[in-house]
Fold:
Amino acid sequence: MLDYEKDPAAIYERSFSIVRSELALDNVPDDLEPVVVRLAHACGMTDIAGDLAFSHDVVVAATAALGANKPVLCDCEMVKAGIIRSFLPSKTEVLVTLNEGTVPELAQRLKTTRSAAAVTLWRDHIEGAVVVIGNAPTALFQVLEVLDEGWPRPAAILAFPVGFVGAAESKAELLANPRGVPFLTLRGRRGGSAMASAALNAMAALVSDTMA
Structure:
Protein backbone atom coordinates (compact mmCIF):
# COMPACT_ATOMS: atom_id res chain seq x y z
CA MET A 1 0.00 0.00 0.00
CA LEU A 2 1.10 3.58 -0.65
CA ASP A 3 2.35 5.51 2.35
CA TYR A 4 0.25 8.65 2.91
CA GLU A 5 -1.74 10.33 5.67
CA LYS A 6 -5.26 8.92 5.95
CA ASP A 7 -6.54 10.44 9.17
CA PRO A 8 -8.91 13.33 8.30
CA ALA A 9 -8.26 15.25 11.50
CA ALA A 10 -4.49 14.97 11.07
CA ILE A 11 -4.70 16.08 7.44
CA TYR A 12 -6.81 19.09 8.40
CA GLU A 13 -4.58 20.10 11.29
CA ARG A 14 -1.34 19.68 9.36
CA SER A 15 -2.72 21.49 6.29
CA PHE A 16 -3.65 24.61 8.21
CA SER A 17 -0.43 24.45 10.21
CA ILE A 18 1.58 24.51 6.97
CA VAL A 19 -0.53 27.33 5.55
CA ARG A 20 -0.03 29.47 8.66
CA SER A 21 3.71 28.79 8.74
CA GLU A 22 4.14 29.93 5.12
CA LEU A 23 1.74 32.87 4.98
CA ALA A 24 3.05 36.39 5.43
CA LEU A 25 0.35 37.93 7.61
CA ASP A 26 2.23 40.95 8.96
CA ASN A 27 0.09 43.43 7.03
CA VAL A 28 -3.19 41.58 7.42
CA PRO A 29 -5.66 42.87 10.06
CA ASP A 30 -6.42 40.39 12.84
CA ASP A 31 -10.05 39.92 11.82
CA LEU A 32 -9.04 39.14 8.22
CA GLU A 33 -6.40 36.52 9.13
CA PRO A 34 -8.79 33.52 9.18
CA VAL A 35 -10.15 34.58 5.79
CA VAL A 36 -6.67 34.79 4.26
CA VAL A 37 -5.73 31.41 5.73
CA ARG A 38 -8.82 29.79 4.23
CA LEU A 39 -8.15 31.44 0.87
CA ALA A 40 -4.59 30.08 0.77
CA HIS A 41 -5.84 26.65 1.79
CA ALA A 42 -8.44 26.70 -0.99
CA CYS A 43 -5.95 27.43 -3.76
CA GLY A 44 -2.74 25.89 -2.40
CA MET A 45 -0.81 29.14 -2.88
CA THR A 46 0.49 30.85 0.23
CA ASP A 47 2.00 33.69 -1.77
CA ILE A 48 -1.44 35.21 -2.37
CA ALA A 49 -1.20 37.31 0.80
CA GLY A 50 0.98 39.82 -1.02
CA ASP A 51 -1.58 40.23 -3.80
CA LEU A 52 -4.65 40.64 -1.61
CA ALA A 53 -6.30 44.04 -1.49
CA PHE A 54 -9.03 44.96 0.93
CA SER A 55 -10.82 47.68 2.81
CA HIS A 56 -10.24 47.44 6.53
CA ASP A 57 -13.97 47.26 7.26
CA VAL A 58 -14.75 44.35 4.93
CA VAL A 59 -14.98 41.66 7.64
CA VAL A 60 -17.18 43.79 9.88
CA ALA A 61 -19.45 44.71 6.96
CA ALA A 62 -19.75 41.21 5.50
CA THR A 63 -20.30 39.43 8.79
CA ALA A 64 -22.91 41.98 9.87
CA ALA A 65 -24.80 41.41 6.63
CA LEU A 66 -24.61 37.63 6.92
CA GLY A 67 -25.70 37.76 10.54
CA ALA A 68 -28.70 39.84 9.49
CA ASN A 69 -29.79 37.24 6.89
CA LYS A 70 -28.96 39.46 3.95
CA PRO A 71 -28.69 37.68 0.57
CA VAL A 72 -25.50 36.30 -0.92
CA LEU A 73 -25.31 37.09 -4.65
CA CYS A 74 -23.02 34.82 -6.69
CA ASP A 75 -21.97 35.20 -10.30
CA CYS A 76 -22.04 31.46 -11.06
CA GLU A 77 -23.27 28.11 -9.81
CA MET A 78 -19.74 26.95 -8.93
CA VAL A 79 -19.44 29.68 -6.30
CA LYS A 80 -22.83 28.77 -4.87
CA ALA A 81 -21.92 25.08 -4.82
CA GLY A 82 -18.80 25.82 -2.79
CA ILE A 83 -20.65 27.70 -0.06
CA ILE A 84 -21.11 25.74 3.18
CA ARG A 85 -24.75 26.32 3.97
CA SER A 86 -24.43 25.15 7.57
CA PHE A 87 -22.24 28.20 8.26
CA LEU A 88 -25.03 30.55 7.18
CA PRO A 89 -28.18 31.48 9.06
CA SER A 90 -30.98 29.20 7.88
CA LYS A 91 -32.96 32.01 6.22
CA THR A 92 -30.06 33.36 4.15
CA GLU A 93 -30.73 33.27 0.41
CA VAL A 94 -27.84 32.33 -1.88
CA LEU A 95 -28.82 33.59 -5.33
CA VAL A 96 -27.45 32.93 -8.81
CA THR A 97 -29.29 34.45 -11.76
CA LEU A 98 -26.95 33.29 -14.53
CA ASN A 99 -29.27 30.50 -15.68
CA GLU A 100 -32.50 32.49 -15.61
CA GLY A 101 -34.42 32.00 -18.86
CA THR A 102 -34.33 35.68 -19.77
CA VAL A 103 -30.54 36.01 -19.51
CA PRO A 104 -29.45 34.92 -23.04
CA GLU A 105 -31.84 37.36 -24.74
CA LEU A 106 -30.91 40.07 -22.26
CA ALA A 107 -27.21 39.55 -22.99
CA GLN A 108 -27.84 39.88 -26.73
CA ARG A 109 -29.86 43.03 -26.23
CA LEU A 110 -27.26 44.61 -23.98
CA LYS A 111 -24.40 43.36 -26.18
CA THR A 112 -22.59 41.85 -23.25
CA THR A 113 -21.90 38.48 -21.63
CA ARG A 114 -24.48 36.32 -19.91
CA SER A 115 -22.62 36.85 -16.64
CA ALA A 116 -22.92 40.62 -16.91
CA ALA A 117 -26.55 40.43 -18.01
CA ALA A 118 -27.33 38.22 -15.02
CA VAL A 119 -26.10 40.96 -12.69
CA THR A 120 -28.78 43.30 -14.02
CA LEU A 121 -31.35 40.96 -12.42
CA TRP A 122 -29.95 41.68 -8.94
CA ARG A 123 -31.64 45.08 -8.64
CA ASP A 124 -34.17 43.97 -6.03
CA HIS A 125 -31.68 41.94 -3.98
CA ILE A 126 -28.40 43.85 -3.91
CA GLU A 127 -29.06 46.36 -1.15
CA GLY A 128 -27.10 45.22 1.91
CA ALA A 129 -26.18 41.91 0.28
CA VAL A 130 -22.79 40.22 0.05
CA VAL A 131 -21.67 40.02 -3.58
CA VAL A 132 -19.35 37.11 -4.38
CA ILE A 133 -17.63 37.00 -7.79
CA GLY A 134 -15.55 33.93 -8.58
CA ASN A 135 -15.62 33.56 -12.33
CA ALA A 136 -16.51 36.37 -14.69
CA PRO A 137 -14.66 39.71 -14.87
CA THR A 138 -17.62 41.12 -16.80
CA ALA A 139 -19.85 40.39 -13.79
CA LEU A 140 -17.60 42.50 -11.57
CA PHE A 141 -17.44 45.28 -14.17
CA GLN A 142 -21.25 45.19 -14.37
CA VAL A 143 -21.62 45.45 -10.60
CA LEU A 144 -19.43 48.54 -10.63
CA GLU A 145 -21.37 50.03 -13.54
CA VAL A 146 -24.77 49.59 -11.90
CA LEU A 147 -23.43 51.19 -8.74
CA ASP A 148 -22.33 54.13 -10.88
CA GLU A 149 -25.89 54.27 -12.18
CA GLY A 150 -27.21 54.75 -8.67
CA TRP A 151 -28.20 51.25 -7.60
CA PRO A 152 -28.39 50.52 -3.86
CA ARG A 153 -25.08 49.44 -2.41
CA PRO A 154 -24.25 45.94 -1.23
CA ALA A 155 -22.70 45.41 2.19
CA ALA A 156 -19.49 44.00 0.70
CA ILE A 157 -17.92 42.73 -2.51
CA LEU A 158 -15.72 39.62 -2.45
CA ALA A 159 -14.13 39.75 -5.90
CA PHE A 160 -12.12 36.84 -7.30
CA PRO A 161 -12.78 36.77 -11.05
CA VAL A 162 -10.16 34.71 -12.84
CA GLY A 163 -8.61 34.70 -16.29
CA PHE A 164 -6.54 36.45 -18.89
CA VAL A 165 -9.02 38.99 -20.28
CA GLY A 166 -10.47 41.51 -17.87
CA ALA A 167 -9.77 39.76 -14.58
CA ALA A 168 -6.86 41.92 -13.50
CA GLU A 169 -8.50 45.01 -14.96
CA SER A 170 -11.86 44.53 -13.24
CA LYS A 171 -10.20 44.04 -9.87
CA ALA A 172 -7.95 47.06 -10.45
CA GLU A 173 -11.06 49.17 -11.11
CA LEU A 174 -12.63 47.94 -7.87
CA LEU A 175 -9.44 48.75 -5.99
CA ALA A 176 -9.15 52.21 -7.58
CA ASN A 177 -12.78 53.09 -6.86
CA PRO A 178 -14.79 50.71 -4.67
CA ARG A 179 -17.84 53.00 -4.90
CA GLY A 180 -18.04 53.24 -1.12
CA VAL A 181 -18.43 49.46 -0.71
CA PRO A 182 -16.16 47.40 1.56
CA PHE A 183 -14.26 44.83 -0.51
CA LEU A 184 -11.79 41.97 -0.63
CA THR A 185 -10.03 41.06 -3.86
CA LEU A 186 -6.91 39.44 -5.31
CA ARG A 187 -4.84 41.53 -7.70
CA GLY A 188 -3.93 40.05 -11.07
CA ARG A 189 -5.17 37.07 -13.06
CA ARG A 190 -5.59 34.60 -10.22
CA GLY A 191 -8.90 33.89 -8.55
CA GLY A 192 -11.69 31.43 -9.21
CA SER A 193 -14.84 29.99 -7.70
CA ALA A 194 -13.07 27.98 -5.01
CA MET A 195 -11.39 31.09 -3.68
CA ALA A 196 -14.58 33.15 -3.83
CA SER A 197 -16.61 30.57 -1.93
CA ALA A 198 -13.72 30.08 0.53
CA ALA A 199 -13.77 33.81 1.31
CA LEU A 200 -17.50 33.71 1.92
CA ASN A 201 -17.21 30.55 4.01
CA ALA A 202 -14.56 32.13 6.19
CA MET A 203 -16.75 35.17 6.78
CA ALA A 204 -19.77 32.97 7.48
CA ALA A 205 -17.77 30.82 9.90
CA LEU A 206 -17.01 33.92 11.93
CA VAL A 207 -20.74 34.61 12.16
CA SER A 208 -21.49 30.97 13.00
CA ASP A 209 -18.90 31.02 15.79
CA THR A 210 -20.42 34.11 17.39
CA MET A 211 -23.91 32.59 17.23
CA ALA A 212 -22.85 29.20 18.66
